[in-house]
Amino acid sequence: MGKTLIKVDCVDQRLIVSNNPLIAAGGRNEDVIEFSFCPLWDNFEKTAVFYRDENAVYHIPIENDKCVIPHEVLAEEGWMYFGVFGTTEDARRTTAISKYRIERGAITGYPLPSDPSNDIYAQYLEQILRAEEAASTAEEAAKNADEACFALLNGFDDVAPAIVVTAAGDMISLHDTRVAPFKGLKLFGKTTQEGTPTPETPIPLVNVGESGSIGVNVYGKNLFTVDINSPIDVRYIGSSGTPSTRKGFVIPLPVGTYTASCPTTKSISEIYLYGAVCDKDERIKTSLPILANKQIRDITFDITDDDTLIIYNAIGTSNASATNLFATYPVQIETGSVATEYEAPKPVQTLIVQTPNGLPGIPVTGGGNYTDENGQQWACDEIDLERGLYVQRIAVIENYNSETITTAYVSSTGALTTGAYVHYILFEPIETPLAAEEIAAYKALRLNYPNTTVLNDAGAGMDVKCAADTKLYIDGKFEELRNAIISTGGNV
């Protein structure tokens, strides 16, 4: 049976699509990518990565240089993103992410059942089950199952046995982590402008980390990491316009979406535990009545530029009453829009990374080294803490004067006009070693058990690699597989 074939050349770490067949949404098991690998990929076990949304990533083994595109990423019109990684016993190679347009497909009227694609985790389950069936005792079954697990994931970690997971974004929440050093941490640049520049009305280029440094904070799940024995005076201005002061805490958070909750079973009849998102003038933008009027609320809120989050005792005025309140009614603040099971806060670990010129980055349509949460690719400078390198991909001209630029660029005037401030992409990146003290500070960071949150104060993109807690991770994957089977009407 013939299949629609996308041909892709893999040259070093770049993917180049050599043909462009139309792919319509709704297909299943009939759209294939055929890869042609350069010699640098010899002896690597290769896996393709597909996603539409980075929260749902599919890993498909490449066999005989081909793999079927998982139907989940073909379900609807839009952009499909894909890449490749390869592993050996002691090395790992990856490619940049590429994208391919999926066109609107016909409405068939009789869809096939949407069984989940047979990705790497399905193989993982198969090998475990085979190992258990082949064993004659419970002890041997456990040993063989472990060997099957680690054989499949061989090359993901240089300290076997371990499972390494990867996450990217400007806010990263990791689950099933164990107390261990990071396996990788990168910061990526971005350059923005407030408005549309013209030669007559230039607009400055602003890089993340423009202040000269980027602070990276490592938490557990709960971001309410205050010393409840040391409340302070927090000030706010309510709707009446009158300033008020209460005992509580200021919680520094970067731009993003968060949820506050208080999972208590104690009486709340006379308890008023509030939060508020205040603007730079201390005026309340969003009130957060977490415990009020005999009700407990999970409240989702947004932090934007120059906002401050305060959590306070709405009726008490003494330090002792505030300390008692927060000891009795523990608060949880976490990333995202869903309140989850309470976890006691872990001490915050902070890494300060120097960025004397900021971290620049230019939006591109392909070939970027970072893809943000909106699917936008960026060619940008990066700080690779695991390798101990600053990787420069962007050059700067502070006063443009007819220099030849043949790569993508951004300009303070929107064009290559005399006197413009210009960023443009270098043909080859320049790598510079980081300071020894920065590398040492990075190596001192530790993940938390069982959840780790990584935030930074500049809105920089991040890429994190870490070792998962093996038992929690496997249990979680089994649960995902079980739920997927149940959702399609099968039996476990």
Structural class: mainly beta
**Total of helices:** 5
Helix percent reads 10-25%
Main β sheet profile: 7 strands, antiparallel
Shape by Cα distribution: globular
CA(first)-CA(last) distance: 32 Å
The tally of beta strands, per DSSP, is 34
Q: What oligomeric state do these chains adopt?
A: single chain
User: What is the domain total for the residues?
Assistant: 4
Range of strand content: 35-45%
Description of the molecule:
With 492 residues, the chain is mainly β. The chain folds into four domains: 4-102, Immunoglobulin-like; 120-162 and 478-487, no CATH class; 166-219 and 351-468, no CATH class; 232-335. It is 14% helix and 39% strand. The chain contains five helices and 34 strands. The strands form eight sheets. The protein has a seven-stranded antiparallel beta sheet with strand order 10-34-12-29-30-32-31. Strands 16-17-23-19-20-21 form a six-stranded antiparallel beta sheet, covered by helices on one side. Strands 4, 5, 7, 8 and 9 form a five-stranded antiparallel beta sheet that branches. Helix 1 (120-134) runs antiparallel to helix 2. The longest helix is centred in the last third of the chain and has 18 residues, at 470-487. It is globular, with a radius of gyration of 26 Å.
Keywords:
Immunoglobulin-like, seven-stranded antiparallel β-sheet, 492 residues, mainly beta, globular
Indicate the topology:
Blueprint: E1 4-11, E2 14-17, E3 31-37, E4 45-53, E5 56-61, E6 66-68, E7 78-87, E8 92-94, E9 98-102, H1 120-134, H2 138-152, E10 163-169, E11 171-175, E12 184-188, E13 191-192, E14 206-207, E15 213-219, E16 232-237, E17 243-251, E18 256-261, E19 273-278, E20 284-292, E21 295-296, E22 299-303, E23 308-313, H3 319-328, E24 332-335, E25 349-354, E26 361-364, E27 370-371, E28 377-380, E29 382-384, E30 389-397, E31 409-411, E32 422-433, H4 436-444, E33 451-456, E34 461-468, H5 470-487
Parallel strand pairs: 1-3
Antiparallel strand pairs: 1-2, 3-6, 4-5, 4-7, 7-8, 7-9, 10-34, 11-33, 12-29, 12-34, 13-14, 15-25, 15-33, 16-17, 17-23, 18-22, 18-24, 19-20, 19-23, 20-21, 26-28, 27-28, 29-30, 30-32, 31-32
Helix pairs in contact: 1-2
